[in-house]
Amino acid sequence: MSRHSPDPRVIVSGLLGDERLLRALAERDMGTVFRMLNHRGVSTRRLAAAVDITQGRLYDYMNGKSRVEKLALFEQIADAFHIPGHLLGLARRAWEPTAGVPEHQRADRSPPDGDDLVAMDHFRDADRQTGGGRLYGAVVRHLSDRVAPRLVDMASGPQMFAAAAALTEMAGWMAHDSGQDDLAERHFARALPLARASGDLPLAAHVAASSSHLVLQTGDPAAAVEWARTGLELAAQGPRIPALIARLRTMRARALAAAEQYTPAAHALEAARRDLDSGVDAEHPWLSPFDAAALASESALILRDLKRLGEALHHAEQAVALRETGRARSLALSRISLVDIQVRRRELDAAVHAAHALLSTTPTLGSVRVVQQLDALRGLLEQHKAYRPVSEYLVRFDDARRARMLLLADLIPPSPGGTPA
């Protein structure tokens, strides 16, 4: 083998968080997989030799003239490139490690096996970097093709319902990130009974927290308070997970602050901080983490609504500092909050400086939610356009928004008039 052609297994390992690869694997589109490897320097000769096909057949796959159909070839591709079996709808491959893998990820565990957990981790990592819009279809396909058939299997245990609940809740967040809140609400509504059926009360409470977030975003703080209360009641019946309780108390604080119930909101936020600081969490494979960065981000919004802008600014700066690596969408949202608070404090030079940094944050992020919050921020800045640095920034903002909208044209939900919003 030519030493100038990279090892495809190394290339694949570096792409397992790339939503384009995940989507191609979920669709069993091997032509796209081959093209991605070739574009990263793996020669067509090496690709063909690795999977024991001719270069002519490889070119047919890469050019879309034919598709891989045979199970044996999918298995050959997975083994040659070290693609985890679940990403192609295959059983765990012989080379996939089991020693040292947590018990909940081992292949010999009763359904669901580790494939659902590994898939969720991959989806979650990709979502944080690229936004949920372009991953939503892949998650729904995993649910329909890999999870739903096992729900009707009499041998399936309660963990199968937990997997269905967790992935359905994830689909709801991706729909929300795509600007499809009605669809997100339906996913959350389906996830809660699945979580209850599994007997996993922390997971049910986690879904309730997501529902609280969604209804607050759609303008119903009273319903958000009720969802947070429901989540806290569910969490109290299961094993104590401080981060989960902190998340629920934080959602309750956000909803109360939005409803201008300032004193109970402040008390709920302080309780959330105590919960998060109270000790090491019990492990729970399905819950997305709620950490110091998440609490800082939410605290900034709560304290902003409580009119405590100095404290809000401190937490917004902390959230940005904690999110500067590894979480592209969270960083963008934290920077939006930072600029928002600086404008409200009339620190316009600092706001413009932070706003320029914001525009350089993942301009290709596939998140309609980020675009919507950017538009709300623009409306706030518009009130200060008489100040020249702000007016100059708004020109740059509008140029950047037009470019971003072109990239998101396939994700933006149609307006009632039938044109992109």
From TrEMBL:
GO MF, any single term: DNA binding
Superkingdom of this protein's organism: Bacteria
InterPro entries with a match to the protein in the record: Cro/C1-type_HTH, Lambda_DNA-bd_dom_sf, TPR-like_helical_dom_sf
Gene3D superfamilies: Tetratricopeptide repeat domain (1.25.40.10)
Protein name, per record: Helix-turn-helix transcriptional regulator
Native source organism of the sequence: Streptomyces phaeolivaceus
